[in-house]
Amino acid sequence: MDTPNAHYDQPWKEAIEDYLDYFLEFFFPQVHALIDWTRDYQSLDKELQQISPSATSGEREGDKLFQVWQCNGEEAYILIHIEVQSQEDTDFSERMYIYHYRSFDLHKKVISLAILGDDRPTWRPQNYYYELGGCSVNFVFPTAKLLDYESRWESLERELNPFALLVMAHLKTKATNNKAEERESWKWHLVQLLYERGYTEGDIIKFFRLLDWMMTLPQ
Length: 219
What we know:
Layout: H1 9-18, H2 20-27, H3 29-32, E1 42-43, H4 45-51, E2 63-69, E3 75-83, H5 92-106, E4 110-116, E5 127-132, E6 135-140, E7 143-145, H6 153-158, H7 162-175, H8 180-196, H9 201-214
Parallel strand pairs: 3-4, 4-7
Antiparallel strand pairs: 1-2, 2-3, 5-6
Helix pairs in contact: 1-2, 1-9, 7-8, 7-9, 8-9
């Protein structure tokens, strides 16, 4: 049976905004350790619009910008890009660099991170390099490839961090395109795990909404 078009960008963006702490702990623990989590972080959607490439470069939906506080008391900014396209994106690294230097124009301490949710095992952009006439730039950014977690499925099922559930939902949504009954079965399984992990009622409601939003099924 055909499945409706899945939703990836918006569930990821909403989850990251509500649970930035868990997100960084799960995917980028080195960055997580820099931040003072006793202080509130702030989502900067209006500033993100200022640094977004023009319409000619393509408007990107899967991006978030946050202001956080480091453990040393200094502020920092975290720019996150979520890439879920299946087709080749040769401009990805360049776009990461553009976002980064535009953020740097506003704030001098920016960490750029990328979540790669595509289905190409060998596509792993990690840097943008430019050299001309002895002048060069080598911009390196940390990435997390969701496909890598397929081989860690058993540990995902035991993991209490809620982003393990979102990774499983993402992978099974992609794997069950036009397989509605199989997707429904996986969806029930993930909802069961959601209830078994001892989350608060509010967190269960939020993450059920995200799973339901991503793992679309026929009416």
